[in-house]
TrEMBL record:
It comes from the Bacteria. One of its GO terms (molecular function) is oxidoreductase activity, acting on the CH-NH group of donors, NAD or NADP as acceptor. Residues 7-189 form the NAD(P)-binding domain. PANTHER family: FLAVIN REDUCTASE (NADPH). Pfam families: NAD_binding_10. This is NAD(P)-binding domain-containing protein. The lineage of its organism: Bacteria, Pseudomonadati, Pseudomonadota, Alphaproteobacteria, Sphingomonadales.
Length: 203
């Protein structure tokens, strides 16, 4: 498959690029700093700005799927979704956040006293992006939320999937590495099971 990754030079974007290239897919890593993208024969790094919707749409055209791996604070959902829509690519996957996941019925992680103040703005924008996506009916979108701790670590290949509830292990920890998150996202691209849904991944 030909897969475009918006934000391909970031931590999530790089791991997703590497995982997809490992599986034999052709990856286009789009970012403002293409020199920081994964160096792999299966990855083509090109310059692009998420804030230039018309130019971005042209870069996305011709791909089988688009992955958005950019900070929510740097994006406008209507503009970004509009660029994907205009490109003609129907499959759209978003690297989400954990803040909008529930820790109890009706209680989101972002609303708990323990949630770090420094991350609230980004997490709030992520929740708004998900709300916007839930109103989109003409794209086959998927929003994949990581666990609370999203970290650089080993590719274990073992994890659990959930829906709208924060995944927590037996010791009360909620975590997933970028590498294992990339496996879950690549699996979803290859075998779609969460069309127009949010799901989550964690240990």
């Amino acid at each position: 498959m030909k897969i475009a990754i918006i934000g391909g030079s970031g931590r999530a974007g790089r791991e997703i690029s590497a995982e997809l290239a490992r599986r034999g897919h052709q990856v286009t890593a789009i970012s403002r700093h293409p020199e920081n993208a994964v160096q792999d024969a299966g990855v083509t790094a090109i310059a692009g700005d998420v804030k230039d919707a018309a130019a971005l749409s042209a870069l996305l055209a011709g791909h089988d799927a688009v992955v958005s791996a950019v900070m929510f604070a740097d994006t406008d959902p209507a503009s970004l979704v509009g660029a994907v829509r205009a490109s003609g690519v129907a499959r759209y996957l978003v690297v989400g956040g954990a803040g909008s996941l529930e820790v109890a019925p009706g209680v989101k992680l972002i609303d708990t006293p323990e949630f770090p103040e420094a991350y609230k703005a980004e997490a709030g924008r992520g929740g708004d992006f998900l709300t916007y996506l839930r109103g989109v009916k003409d794209l086959d979108w998927t929003f994949l939320s990581p666990s609370a701790l999203f970290f650089v670590g080993d590719r274990k290949g073992t994890f659990r999937l959930g829906t709208d509830q924060l995944l927590v292990d037996g010791e009360g920890n909620s975590s997933i590495s970028y590498a294992d998150y990339a496996i879950a996202l690549a699996d979803e691209i290859e075998t779609p099971k969460h069309i127009r849904q949010r799901f989550t991944v964690g240990y």
